[in-house]
Amino acid sequence: MKIEIVQPSDIEKQSMAIIEQELQNYDISHLSPKEKQILKRVIHTTADFDYVQNLCFSKNAVSKALSVLKEKNAVIVTDTKMAMSGISKPALSELNCEIYCFVSDSDVIGQAKDRNVTRAVVSVEKAVNLFKDRNVIFIVGNAPTFLIRLYELVTEKKIMPSLIVGVPVGFVNVVQSKELILSTNTEYIIAKGRKGGSTVAVSICNALLYQLYDRNE
Fold first, then answer.
1. Among residues 139, 159, 135, 145, which one has the least CA distance to residue 86?
2. What are the start-end ranges of the E strands in 27-134?
């Protein structure tokens, strides 16, 4: 087996070229160019072409998210510290975008214990209470209970998110939580089925940010 020597600066570029070539084997004619860029970054993160079928977008998801981010006053809320740490800080700074994860806050931990619910449930409630009048993008890659509670708050008209990225991974209530979001009239990017994870959530968020922020400048 021959190992190809590739300069660090060229690894991502070459990977994307391979993905582009292999995508020719799939019908992605339903995707807009901007949606395709998101799909490619998810595949780049996972090396999994199943996302061609799994990843779905509401009609105006990408355009709405980009419009909100361009206004430079958006709030991003994640369900895990891991997801928050992976989202591009230079892009967030350039776009004046605030980012939060409340799952480790002492008040969230205390309430979750008292109520016998997950910290994800309490953290989404805290976010809604703080940002119900803001342009909020929710990035969910781990906790289906976060998505389920968010669905309830949306249906109760407590908040209308600018975008929900719902890609939790796993086996318990994962598929169901995603189907709940698909049933709403919110803008969403959802990975149907069991696949997903924080890295996928981050790749989707960064793919949106990179359409407005040039990393090479």
1. 139
2. 55-57, 75-78, 98-100
Measured CA to CA, the distance from residue 46 to residue 26 in angstroms comes to 17
Which residues share a beta bridge with 57? 189
Residue tagged active-site, from 23, 34, 36, 44: 44
CA atoms 142, 70, 207, 96: torsion sign: negative
Cβ-Cβ contacts under 8 Å for 23 (sequence gap 6 or more): 36, 40, 43, 49, 52
Phi, psi of 24, deg, nearest 5:
-65, -15
Query: Helix-strand-coil percent breakdown of the chain, rounded to 5?
Result: 55, 10, 35
Contacts of 201 (CB under 8 A, 6+ apart): 78, 83, 139, 140, 141, 142, 165, 167
30 catalytic, yes or no? no
Domains in the chain, CATH or no CATH each? 55-210 (3.40.50.10230)
pLDDT digit string (tens) for 107-136?
999 999 999 999 999 999 999 999 999 999
The model's pTM: 0.94
